[in-house]
Every structure is written in structure tokens, then in C-alpha cells.
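Example for tutorial group B:
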């Protein structure tokens, strides 16, 4: 996979960092992709920040501080024993305790957890809150499992993970396949083993036991707040826009809700079995009931909504729209998808998922002049509100929804400004990718310089 990255476009110093990384871990394609994307925007730092090279900051920052892999044995409802592999990659703690989600999905492997952990470092830096970067999870498939099986899996996972986390050490949260139910089971087991109500050890908790208002909504709302700023910077708004949202999980549902509150019409959502077109606009209450309460499929939504049609063939990106919000998973939007979007006149692509757009597809968006927001900036609202949950836990308090949502909004406006100001400062005005990477990176790198060789 690494052959597809053209290191000749990097300065020699950064190319050698990348080549050595690929040689060390040749099979980690997703991780290579995430690192290459960041390095390819850092060229100006080679000259402007000679101390980074002298102190091997580039070499150090691409190597996780600690990588944990562990056995997760559990028994199903029939008493059969299964074994999964658990992961926690504690990538960088220069700015604060490690922080980042847990993903339960059959595709999870070390490459995916490393790419997510690497992205998380710079995303967390952009939020302005004191959080390092980490990610974890397991190659466990929650689909079709009973609540009791999910609970036993979470308990077994936490029995090992609890040795490695804590409110000042590492603070996991949700990601794909890990939502409020799983955080509940994980927190219960942590509390039991440690005999300690450390509310700040996990975020995304329930509202009566240390959770924050607006955390459930935060990633989707934050994405739309960021996209709204991009439109506003061009004298435009969401009013009257046709929007396509991929996925139908936590991020997709609340991106849909906020976009529609701002006057847009979301005409399509999806899951791994297909997509739904609803020309009346997605009925968010029905979607929440199908996905959050009944744990159903988007085909169930279509079956209950007269204006909706389900398609198991074709691509959601062929649905004409002004704004596309990929909110499912990595590399879900490739060159073909982007070509279809551009052909249909898309104005903006803003990422809710982590690394959903392939490098070729990003190049094509750039070539066509389509506004593009990279996930590490535009989906930072989730972890930012996790940071707000940690603040509330430290203060043994809980803020009202409106107050927390207003802070989230302010953070997203701030990230947008920071991306644009940094892009200007480095001579690439309007380039959100370079702005996000440079702003996120410099803060972490400067903290590493200040803290010495560790
Ligand atoms: P959920 O598990 O709630 O939903 C995931 C959605 O994406 C589902 O509709 C799922 O469909 C679909 N999906 C997942 N994997 C695939 C795949 N391989 N192919 C096709 N569809 C897929 O996860 P979230 O909404 O929390 O996460 C979505 C994305 O947003 C991820 O990239 C995550 O890393 C990112 N993110 C999440 C944050 C959060 O706070 N939750 C914060 C920032 C980013 P199906 O049910 O069929 O699998
Ligand atoms: O990718 C992400 O930023 C998340 N899954 C949220 C992490 C968190 O700690 O809230």
C-alpha cells in the first residue's frame, strides 16, 4: 500500500521519516495514509522550525508512546467461548492525558487504531483543551449480539484495560460500535474493579452518573457548526441546501438533525447494507427510533416512511446534493464517488468520519475547487465535548444543555478561525487541510520541545 505514496513531493527530511516508518510496519496502510497526509503539509516547518529536526520531533511524533494489545475472552448466550483482540494505542501525551475513543468493529486492527490515534493527537490539539491523543477498540462485531453478550464483552475488555487508564492517565470514549450502552457497561466494570467512582475515566457517560449534556449530539452538531462557518466565510448558509449524509450512526444522526435545524434538507443517509433517499427530508425522530432504540437498519426506516426508498445497489454519492457529509468510516469516499458529486454540482464536502475521503478523492476535490474540511478539524466537536465532560467531572458539576452546546459552538468557530489564520500565515490561504495540520502539529511539537527528550 505504501508504494502509492509519492515521497518525492516531500522534503528529504520528511521523506526519510516516512520511509523508515513504512519499513518498520510495512502492512499498516491506513496508518501510512494518515501520516503521509500530515507530513505532506509540514514542509514549511523544516525551514521555519529547525529545532524540530534537531530534536527528532518528526521521528518521535510518528511513534506511539505505548501500544497495548490484549486477549478479550467472553462467552455468548449459549455458553460458547470467543476470543477477540483488544487494543489501546497511547500515542502522545505532551498536551494532557491520553484521550480518544474505542471502536468495536470486525475490521479493527493495529493499523486502524494507529491511524485513528495519530489523527486524534492533532484533533485534540485543535480543540484548545488539554488532551493527548489515543485510540483503542477490538475486532469484535456487536451486530446481532444480545445486551447480555455486549455486557460480558465490555466487562472482559475493561478487566484488562482498567490497568492502563485513569482520569489523569488515559480517558477513553465511544467511536464506531461503542455508544452509551457500551460506555455504561465499561464504566460499571471499572468502578467495580477499582472500587472508585472516577467519573473522569471515561466520557460519553449517562446524564445521571457523570455524563455531559450535548455529548451525544456533539460530533454531528460540531461538524455542522464548522461547515456553517465555511459557508458563512463565503456569504452563504445551510438555508435551502440539499445535503447527503453517509452513515446513520451517532455522528450521522446529529449532523442530519442540526443541518435540518439550520434550514437544509438531508435527502439521503446510509449504512453498510445500502442507502435511503427521502425527498421529503429525513425524519430524524423516526431515524433515531430505528437506529438508537430498535438498533435497526436504514431499510427499516424506508419501510416505515412513504417518501423514502432503500437502495442496496449503487452509491450514496450519486445522489445529487450541494453539501456531502461523510459520517460512516475511513476511505468510504473514493475517486468515483467524488467524481459523481462534482458532476452533480457539489459545493462542499465536510468530514464527520475520520479519514473518510481517499487521497485521490481529496486531490480531485481540490482540483475542482470544492470546499473541503478534513475530519481532524470538522469532527473535533465530539472530543471537545468529551473535554468539557472532563471539566465538569473535575468540578463535580453539570452544565445545562444550552451552556454546553454554546461552548461546543464557540470551540468549532475557534477551530475554523485557527485553520484559516494558520493557512494564511503559511502562505496557503483557504487550505483547511494545511491549516488544521500545521496548527494542530505545532502546538504538540512545541510542547514536546519544552518537555525534553522523553
Ligand atoms: P456508529 O457506530 O454510531 O455508526 C457508524 C455508521 O457507519 C453506521 O451507520 C455503520 O453502518 C456505518 N459504517 C461503519 N463501518 C462501515 C463500513 N466499514 N462500511 C460501511 N458503513 C460503515 O459510529 P459513529 O457515528 O460514532 O462514527 C462514525 C464515524 O465518525 C467514524 O469514522 C468515527 O471514527 C467518527 N467519529 C466519531 C465520533 C464520535 O463521537 N462518535 C467523533 C469523531 C469522529 P452499519 O451499522 O451497517 O455498520
Ligand atoms: O474520533 C473521535 O474523536 C472520537 N471518537 C471521540 C473521542 C472522544 O474521546 O470523545
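The residue assignment follows.
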Amino acid at each position: 500500500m505504501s508504494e502509492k505514496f509519492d515521497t518525492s513531493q516531500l522534503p528529504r527530511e520528511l521523506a526519510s521519516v516516512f520511509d523508515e516508518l513504512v519499513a518498520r510496519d510495512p502492512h499498516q496502510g491506513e496508518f501510512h495514509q494518515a501520516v503521509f497526509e500530515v507530513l505532506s503539509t509540514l514542509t514549511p516547518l523544516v525551514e521555519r522550525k529547525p529545532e524540530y529536526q534537531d530534536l527528532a520531533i518528526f521521528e518521535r511524533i510518528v511513534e506511539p508512546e505505548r501500544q497495548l494489545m490484549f486477549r478479550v475472552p467472553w462467552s455468548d448466550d449459549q455458553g460458547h467461548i470467543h476470543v477477540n483482540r483488544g487494543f489501546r494505542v497511547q500515542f502522545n501525551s505532551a498536551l494532557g492525558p491520553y484521550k480518544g475513543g474505542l471502536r468495536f468493529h470486525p475490521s479493527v486492527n493495529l493499523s486502524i487504531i494507529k491511524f485513528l490515534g495519530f489523527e486524534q493527537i492533532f484533533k485534540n490539539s485543535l480543540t484548545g483543551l488539554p488532551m493527548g491523543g489515543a485510540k483503542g477498540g477490538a475486532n469484535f462485531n456487536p451486530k446481532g449480539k444480545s445486551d447480555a453478550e455486549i455486557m460480558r464483552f465490555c466487562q472482559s475488555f475493561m478487566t484488562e484495560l482498567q490497568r492502563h487508564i485513569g482520569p489523569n492517565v488515559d480517558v477513553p470514549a465511544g467511536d464506531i460500535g461503542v455508544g452509551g450502552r457500551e460506555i455504561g457497561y465499561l464504566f460499571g466494570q471499572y468502578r467495580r474493579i477499582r472500587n472508585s467512582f472516577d467519573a473522569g475515566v471515561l466520557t460519553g457517560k449517562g446524564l445521571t452518573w457523570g455524563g455531559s449534556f450535548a455529548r451525544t449530539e456533539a460530533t454531528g452538531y460540531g461538524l455542522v457548526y464548522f461547515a456553517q462557518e465555511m459557508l458563512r466565510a463565503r456569504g452563504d448558509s445551510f438555508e435551502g441546501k440539499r445535503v447527503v449524509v453517509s452513515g446513520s450512526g451517532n455522528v450521522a444522526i446529529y449532523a442530519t438533525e442540526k443541518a435540518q435545524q439550520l434550514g437544509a434538507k438531508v435527502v439521503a443517509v446510509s449504512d453498510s447494507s445500502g442507502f435511503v433517499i427521502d425527498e421529503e427530508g429525513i425524519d430524524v425522530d423516526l431515524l433515531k427510533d430505528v437506529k438508537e432504540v430498535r438498533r435497526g437498519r436504514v431499510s427499516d426506516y424506508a419501510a416505515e416512511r412513504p417518501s423514502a426508498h432503500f437502495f442496496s445497489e449503487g452509491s450514496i454519492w450519486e445522489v445529487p446534493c450541494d453539501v456531502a457529509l461523510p459520517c460512516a468510516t475511513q476511505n468510504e469516499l473514493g475517486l468515483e464517488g467524488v467524481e459523481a458529486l462534482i458532476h452533480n454540482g457539489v459545493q462542499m464536502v465536510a468530514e464527520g468520519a475520520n479519514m473518510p475521503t481517499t487521497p485521490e478523492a481529496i486531490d480531485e476535490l481540490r482540483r475542482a475547487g470544492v470546499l473541503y474540511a478534513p475530519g481532524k478539524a470538522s469532527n473535533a466537536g465530539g472530543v471537545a465535548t468529551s473535554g468539557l465532560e472532563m471539566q465538569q467531572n473535575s468540578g463535580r458539576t453539570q452544565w445545562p444543555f444550552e451552556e454546553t452546546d454554546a461552548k461546543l459552538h464557540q470551540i468549532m468557530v475557534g477551530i475554523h478561525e485557527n485553520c484559516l489564520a494558520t493557512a494564511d500565515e503559511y502562505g496557503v490561504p483557504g487550505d483547511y487541510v494545511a491549516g488544521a495540520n500545521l496548527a494542530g502539529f505545532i502546538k504538540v511539537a512545541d510542547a514536546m520541545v519544552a518537555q525534553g527528550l522523553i
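The domain at 218-369 is CATH 3.40.50.720 (Rossmann fold). Compare this with the pattern of hydrophobic and polar residues in the output above.
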